[in-house]
Amino acid sequence: MSAFQFAIESADNAEFNEAPLANGEETHTVANAIAEAQDLAQEAADEDQVADKLEDEQEQAEDLAEEVEDTVAQEGALDATSARLLKVALSNIVGKAHAKKTLPATESYSGGRQAGREATRIALEGIKDTLKQFWEAIKAQFKKVYQKVKDWMIKTFSAAKKLQARAEALQNKANSTVGSIEDKSFGFSQTKAIAVEGKYNEPGKLTSSLNTLQEVIKGTITEMKKDTVDAKIDDAVNAIKASFTGSGKNRSLNTQTINALQDAVKGTVKGATAAATNATIVGDKTKYDAQFGDANEVTVTGVFGLPGGRAIIVVEPKTTASDLKTAIEVLKGAKLVMASDRYNPRDVTEGDVKTLTISQIDKVCDNVIEIAESVYSFEKNWKENDKYVEKIQREVDDIVKEFDREDEADSTEQREFRNFCTSAVGAIRRHTQFKANLCQYGLTTGNAFLNYAERSLAQHKSK
Asked: What pTM value is reported for the model?
């Protein structure tokens, strides 16, 4: 089923993943809170996939509209063969039911020149209306995604406070423990969550990686509080509004505001000892980079080697905005993504881990406390995000509808304009999703490390 058809029918096929639960009343409470957040994260991810597919289908529909207009410009009208091919192409994008309702019957083109022209006119109007419906569907889907992410983040902030309390309790217990390690290793079921580059038998490397993650989360959330990326997207919307609508319109886009978005995205990832670098451990780098865009069009860097085989990816378009079309490429291309640190993720099995020392347990707790504090310190900024999102949605919708009403705007320009606005909404959606993914990853990983530390402490026997 096409995402367009899915959106029209308001289907709901969400699936949920569960986080592993730890033993013990306190750990169970924290794990449950994180598991609830993960369930909501999966719901948000499902809706986000529909939004991505909708944008892809809109682009296909825009291309189809352009092809049809070119054919009509050359031939004067569609013939029965072209009309049949058009119906098949549109059906593949929006589903057979909508295509059948939108386009005239194929035999309508065989009743003479006048009948063919009239059928062609109806077909063009149908495609134009479909493109407008796409905008409505994309708007509605964005609202669904954002609401899911909001519900998810409410749970995440609550889980962060519980995680901090758990880390502080474990740290106090560890600091009052006097004894020696009786068992130097033990079986652990969450090796995949703590492993670094597929390995989990080097405690020093594991705790160092957690420290790097803590620094990156703290630094990145500090940057996200500045709302720099959101502000640049807002600037881009204001630029398109000033150039293409209202009394001051001049059809000349201020592209400096668009290009500033790239620097804002790149500058978001911060850390005391880590910064975005070229991939070195991803395996097939060509295929890895291709996940995020054509190698000729984007540069891919990231913070690699994080716990659980994860990476924070920075995607930068090589294009600079010079007109409406290239501005769209920048809006679509500039993004931050939570991803695997390899093209083919490592298969990490359960196994024995080495027991942490008291000082290592203390350091794990310190880092988890920092992660939790960073996450829930973001709560106030997140709440303020509601006003920003509502403002952008309202303004973008208003300027799309105003521009669609303009008599002097040709269909190609209208399509590019709608595509720009869709790209702006998509940029907000992707950045919002990244914020939530980063917070969730920090809590899930922090909890796994606390489980490791707690199990390690149990191996220390009092003298």
From this structure: 0.87
